[in-house]
Amino acid sequence: MAVASTNSAHKSASTFGFASLIETMKTRIARYRVYRQTVNELSELSDRELADLGLHRSMIRRLAMQAAEEQFAR
């Protein structure tokens, strides 16, 4: 009987680890989608529109990364 308990405990731990891995992957994919959407939207703006916002085209990727991190830091 002790063997069955040990095996079921091991199975639960590995299942939890797999579930954690899946959640981590879901979060990373969602964060990447926010990043890509932000990059795409800002890239569509003209240089003048970006300047009106106080931005330069070289700042787009960094701002997108910050936006994605802030959204999932909550």
How helix-rich are the residues, as a percent range?
over 70%
Proportion in β-strands? under 5%
Oligomer: single chain
State the low-pLDDT regions, or none: none
In total, how many beta strands? 0
Pfam families: YjiS-like
Domain YjiS-like: 28-61
Protein name: YjiS-like domain-containing protein
Write a concise synopsis of the structure shown.
The chain has helices at 2-43, 47-52, 60-72.
Layout of helices and strands:
Elements: H1 2-43, H2 47-52, H3 60-72
What report would you give on this structure?
It is built from 3 helices and no strands. By secondary structure, it is mostly helical. It has one domain. The radius of gyration is 21 Å and the shape is rod-shaped.
